[in-house]
Amino acid sequence: MAREISQSEMNNLFIWGLSPPQERNVQRFREAGIQNFLNRPIRRDRLFQILRRLFEEREKGVGPNGSQKGLEKQKNEGVKRSPFILVVEDNPVNQKMMVKILEKIGCRVDTAENGIEAIKKISQSIYDLVFMDCQMPGMDGYEATSEIRRRVGPCQHIPIIAVTANAMQGDQEACLKAGMNDYLPKPVQKERVFEMIKKWVLDNSKPERSTL
User: Fold this and answer.
1) Do residues 163 and 89 lie in contact, with contact meaning Cβ atoms separated by under 8 Å?
2) Which DSSP helix (H) or strand (E) runs through 88?
3) Global pTM?
4) Quick one: CA dihedral 89, 93, 97, 99, positive or negative?
5) Between the chain's N and C termini, which has fewer beta carbons within 10 Å?
6) For 97-128, how does the pLDDT look when each residue is reduced to its tens digit (9 = 90+)?
7) Which of 149, 153, 171, 159 has the alpha carbon at shortest distance from 208?
8) 3-state secondary structure of 55
9) Between 92-104 and 190-197, two packed helices, what is the crossing angle to 10 degrees?
């Protein structure tokens, strides 16, 4: 039904699933047009928050697939869904800022506070791209990326963008050696973030190797 709705004249509807599906079925549900899931039992305050946010997005012109100025143009050229991005950042201020930038350009966003949590989430969900902070307690971005690259499966090839304040040549080489695909310097700028998403997610001719 979700697929029929997404492909019909009613394709401007927000579609949420009730209770997340099993991990092996997540991609099939997303391809069908289900943007997110609501856990049961459903709480009234949580449902109200979701409805309020969806109506606010509708008033801003953001559609169910996260369509908005930058990504709307890409969607018209063949992109059928909003990119699902993982932000790995231990600093709450930086994390919140990154999430805000991504949501404003039409992405769906998940977060992790360190490398260990990032590996766990990547093994459980299907992301289009990861923004990985390099310096984190417990397990830093370099270690987390190396571990992801050693694993077998779709997550092994997920684009990982290094996010760090260090801009020295040696730091860029360390990112490449760890298996990261590209480099985003701090302070993070919205235009650079969109460039990375366009390059590694929206562009069908994106490079297979890093261009650090």
Assistant:
1) yes
2) strand 84-88
3) 0.61
4) positive
5) N
6) 999 999 888 888 999 999 999 998 888 888 99
7) 159
8) helix
9) 60
